[in-house]
Amino acid sequence: MTPPLRIAYIRRFADAELIPALQGLDGTQTVVLSADEAIAGGLEGCDGIVTAGAKDLWTPAFAAAVQASGLRFIQNMTAGYDGIDLYELPGIAVYGNGGVLGAPVAEHGLAMLLTLMRRLDYAVLAQQQKTWLRKGLPQVLTLGDRRMTILGFGSIGRAAAKRARAFDMEVAALRRGGGSDPEADHVYSYEEMQSAFAATDVLFLAAPLTDETFRIVNETTLSWLKPGAVVVNVGRGDLICSEALQKALESGHLGGACLDVTAPEPLPDNHPLWSAPNVLISPHIAGGSDRAGAKLAAHVVANLRLLLQGERPSHVIRGH
Q1: 249 near 219, Cβ under 8 Å?
Q2: Which DSSP string do the residues of 223-260 spell out, in sequence order?
Q3: Taking Cα atoms as reference points, which of 160, 79, 112, 78 lies closest to residue 281?
Q4: Pairing status of strand 73-76 against strand 93-95
Q5: HSE toward the beta carbon, residue 98, CA cutoff 13 A
Q6: What angle do CA 287, 289, 294 make, to 5 degrees?
Q7: HSE of 173, CA atoms in CB hemisphere, 13 A
Q8: Do residues 257 and 231 touch, judged by C-beta distance below 8 A?
């Protein structure tokens, strides 16, 4: 009789959906651990783990525990996997989350953008003060007939493109290989970034954090953007040089910034971005959704079933 596939689930989010889904999967045995319990030897005898790919989880101690345990695979739950990418982890395959967070993350970025451009932040403040604010309101802007350039055209970028087009925006995709794509009006390679930025009204950042994309938005590249452009970051904080962003906002070159992620994170209470002009900040909540947990659980279970059947899992990031 084939022994069950032993899975360690590292508590993070969506516990209510993931734990019963994993424990109810035939042919597997699931242990539920905290990160500290995993570090203390809880991964011993496990074949794989279901966990997040964030840097704050993937400490050297956690990575060492993973490497020492003889795991065969990591099923990542989050859109990003920059924490996992810090370590080579030889012999361990890494599987992605199937893009299940693409829609909520894109929606959150568009919601922040609309709030900024329609000046709803002013309206909310006025409501709290019981003030009927019409005079003195900054110019209200529309998305239509403007160009959104999306850096990172994976599940989040594509979901953002679909929604931007619904607002009559022109969409440009910026990705390493360039080429063409039916979901974008224009596609640029990284080598064409200056040309892409020069025509950009909204820069939407949805790329993974890698050596290549670390602070890819910096003083030089920000200067290429059209005056008054808005930057939306739902990817990772270190896609942007915070000091350069601050300078571009204060000079008026940028029309605003919508940040669900920051560097550092969380943002210290004395950080100048809190009070920078035309900035909206949310505390890394774009992936949240009332339906994301169920979709994530369904994807993880489907991938584990493929493993149990001896088939190749979907959304392989690394390995087999």
Answers
A1: no
A2: HHSPTTEEEEE-S-GGGB-HHHHHHHHHHTSEEEEEES
A3: 112
A4: parallel
A5: 17
A6: 105
A7: 24
A8: yes
Tell the residue number behind the tokens 């992605």, with chain if given: 96
Taking only Cα atoms into account, the Rg of the chain, rounded to an integer number of angstroms, comes to 21
212's tokens: 């290549």
| pLDDT surpassing 90 at residue 82 | no
Please choose, from the candidates 191, 179, 192, 127, the residue with its C-alpha nearest in 3D space to the C-alpha of residue 153.
179
Residue type, 209: L
Q: What is the pLDDT of residues 152-204, one digit of tens each?
A: 999 999 999 999 999 999 999 999 888 889 999 999 999 999 999 999 999 99
Domain map (residue ranges) of the chain: 5-100+290-318, 102-281
Is 284 noted as a catalytic residue in this protein?
yes
Catalytic-labelled residue, pool 265, 271, 315, 318: 265
Q: Note whether 77 and 50 are within 8 A (CB).
A: yes
Domains 5-100+290-318 and 102-281 share a fold: yes
Which H/E stretch holds residue 22? helix 15-23
Per-residue confidence band for 12, with pLDDT thresholds at 50, 70 and 90: confident
Is residue 265 annotated as a catalytic residue, yes or no?
yes
pLDDT in tens, 242-296: 999 999 999 999 999 999 999 999 999 999 999 999 999 999 999 989 999 999 9
73 forms bridges with which residues in the sheet? 48, 93
Q: How far apart are CA 268 and CA 27, in angstroms?
A: 46
In the predicted model, is pLDDT for residue 42 greater than 80?
Answer: yes
- DSSP 8-state assignment for residue 190: G
Residues 59, 55: Cα–Cα separation, whole Å? 7
Pairing outcome for strands 5-10 and 28-33: parallel
Mean pLDDT of 44-60: 92
CATH class of residue range 102-281: alpha beta
Overall fold of domain 5-100+290-318: Rossmann fold (3.40.50)
